[in-house]
Amino acid sequence: MEAGGERFLRQRQVLLLFVFLGGSLAGSESRRYSVAEEKERGFLIANLAKDLGLRVEELAARGAQVVSKGNKQHFQLSHQTGDLLLNEKLDREELCGPTEPCILHFQILLQNPLQFVTNELRIIDVNDHSPVFFENEMHLKILESTLPGTVIPLGNAEDLDVGRNSLQNYTITPNSHFHVLTRSRRDGRKYPELVLDKALDREEQPELSLTLTALDGGSPPRSGTAQINIQVLDINDNAPEFAQPLYEVAVLENTPVYSVIVTVSASDLDTGSFGTISYAFFHASEEIRKTFQLNPITGDMQLVKYLNFEAINSYEVDIEAKDGGGLSGKSTVIVQVVDVNDNPPELTLSSVNSPIPENSGETVLAVFSVSDLDSGDNGRVMCSIENNLPFFLKPSVENFYTLVSEGALDRETRSEYNITITITDLGTPRLKTKYNVTVLVSDVNDNAPAFTQTSYTLFVRENNSPALHIGSVSATDRDSGTNAQVTYSLLPPQDPHLPLSSLVSINADNGHLFALRSLDYEALQAFEFRVGATDRGSPALSSEALVRVLVLDANDNSPFVLYPLQNGSAPCTELVPRAAEPGYLVTKVVAVDGDSGQNAWLSYQLLKATEPGLFGVWAHNGEVRTARLLSERDAAKHKLAVLVKDNGEPPRSATATLHVLLVDGFSQPYLPLPEAAPAQAQADLLTVYLAVALASVSSLFLFSVLLFVAVRLCRRSRAASVGRCSVPEGPFPGHLVDVSGTGTLSQSYQYEVCLTGGSGTNEFKFLKPIIPNFVAQGAERVSEANPSFRKSFEFS
Question: Where does the UniProt annotation place the signal sequence (predicted)?
Fold first, then answer.
């Protein structure tokens, strides 16, 4: 009997669970299947591929799976055939208890695209249980004064089957004094009542033994029996009577243990032992006896364990009041369990899609379902996530939700999201459950490499060694993996004449720049080129930067003397009249330096002189001037060594040698030098010089006459023209013409000269200087053509 009661209680729990699940699935259109209980594992229920209108390959490709509520998997789906099979033997009584019809709800979850198909499976009952009495033997005491027609309650039997297979009626044998009535409770259970047909006589028959049979409606029918032993009592003509035939009480499921939930009360009009009443449960199940206890004297019914609305939401308890004479009365207590919010919501994760590409649009990241074992508002659930995330929750069929991204993500901003899904019920107080879902964002090549600078300026000192590291460029890529691996390269130069490939090279991996050959500042002072940075993504992205290379000058060129020429030809002699004043410009040393900056700043100094203190050299412009008045005692011929030095480090220098001849006037031929008078060879050489000087003066005079005639003819033809020259009509002045204003005419300058006549002033007018040609070859040609021209330029 105890085993039967435990099974009955378990069936009631399963019944309540499926009633709750059935309520949550109500209102959705579903496919319906049916199967008889106790079918073996692997039994074919239906072909889902055919029912869904899908091919078997498509069903497998879309990842079809069967999702049932709870942790039990009653079904299995064959991806090879598309058949829906039983995963285990089903016991209708264990799953649904007395609930009819017995419906199992399940969903078919399809991916790509996401689709839910709701289905129902009805489990058909078979007659596999016989009616069982809670008590195999019943003992009754009946007063002999009991009137015919009196109804005596009997203990009922229980059949776990439902419908026609459940208990249908009761019979009793032998039936000379009694017959049995079959009654139905409000919950559908049938119970027997024994009806007295003929009055009893204790003296004639003090005891009776009857067999009570319970029959179900199966085919073939099953039955169960119980033995009824009746003892005929002496007259005790008043049985206890309850104040209420039915007690109804509502109890919170969190009511403390040992709380009194109801007190029943009965009275008996008899006195003595026949009027003493004791209370007891009447044919109570094991679950009721574990949950409640009844005080036999006071009638207080107490809790002995906590109630659980989710397991059993109501109890029907029969209580018997029995007097000392054995008479009894019966009352029923209906205990309604009131739900409290004592179960937090639950989340069941079906699938997670991670990682996802950062450029994907609206994408389903996770599929999950929520549930709450409570009822009413306590079982209603809300789902939410943080507001500052680029995701949202999208409700699906029934209690399923999908976690969806709002659009494209940016891995460079955030590569991982920890999404907290908060599930809250609507009970009081509200209970919540948090579930974390981690979503990783995979990289796509959406960022081009970026240089740290838009342009780079590098400085390289000339005469560098080949393969010298001159600098580096650097670019970074915000992507990751191969998308962030940067390769450097030289881009084709914009100047087609720039031999970039022979000047620099770049390390493709780290951006180091190297000079391939030695650079020469005097040949190439600066150049620029473009560098590209390309990642290894697909498609590859790139960027470029400008690199400007400035060649720094090194002091690698010594000063070069343009005048006087130092090429080993006939020396150039400067003529200085003895009447020259101090500061008289003897000549000017002209030199250049191929370097730049301070490496080309030249300074001059008198290194050596025949007679120290007679001549001086200006340090900044190289002008050689007399330092004092000349006297007759000064030697006629002087040799000067002028040092030309640059300002580099270390400094470089050159030496210019000057020959100076002191004369009484420019018309005086080369006079024998005092130290050369005794030498006949030097006298012959002086004679030659004088002859050349006379020839030069004659040639100059003839050139002047021709020039005068040409200018006069030109003035006649173009009288109004500006800048034309005329030959003076009067004689030339007899004084020395000083072109530079400080002395003799420097050989490194030429002037356009115009002679003007008619005014009587007879003076030169210098119109404009012609920029000299400092090329050594040009200077050599001037010197070779007329080396003594400047020395003989005198008019008398």
Answer: 1-26
- 363 domain-assigned: yes
Query: 87 and 107 in one domain?
Result: yes
User: Would 689 be classed as within a structural domain?
Assistant: no
Regarding whether 655 and 623 lie in a shared domain, the answer is: yes
Count CB neighbours of 595 within 10 A: 23
Co-location of 526 and 457 in the same domain: yes
DSSP state of 782: H
The reply to whether 266 and 211 lie within a common domain is no
Dihedral through CA 283, CA 289, CA 295, CA 297, nearest 10? 20
572 DSSP assignment: P
What is the amino acid identity at position 353?
N
Dist CA 375 CA 363 (whole Å): 34
Q: In this structure, are 198 and 154 located in the same domain?
A: yes
Q: Compute the distance between CA of residue 494 and CA of residue 527 in angstroms, rounded to an integer.
A: 11
Determine the 3-state secondary structure of 14 from DSSP: helix
- The answer to which of 302-311, 396-405, 706-715, 727-736 has the lowest mean pLDDT is 727-736
Residue 105's closest CA among 314, 369, 486? 369
Distance CA 506, CA 458 (A): 14
The contacts of residue 279 (CB under 8 Å, 6+ apart) are 264, 266, 294, 295, 296, 297, 299, 319, 320, 321
- DSSP classification of residue 693: H
Query: Rounded CA gap, 379 and 21, in Å?
Result: 12
Alpha carbon 311 to chain centroid, angstroms: 48
Q: Which residue would you say has higher pLDDT here, 777 or 404? A: 404
pTM (two decimals)? 0.45
> What is the helix (H) or strand (E) element at residue 701, kind and residue range?
helix 680-717
Q: Which residue has the tokens 């659980």?
A: 308
pLDDT at 739: 33
Q: Which domain holds residue 503?
A: 450-552
Pick from 415, 390, 408, 405: nearest CA to 481: 415
Q: Which is nearest to 555 in space by CA: 458, 645, 457?
A: 645
Q: Do 416 and 469 reside in the same domain of the chain?
A: no
Buried (b) or exposed (e) across 485-511, using 16+ Cβ within 10 A?
A: ebbbebeebeeeeeebeebbebeeeeb
pLDDT tens string 132-165: 888 889 999 888 888 899 898 888 888 777 778 8
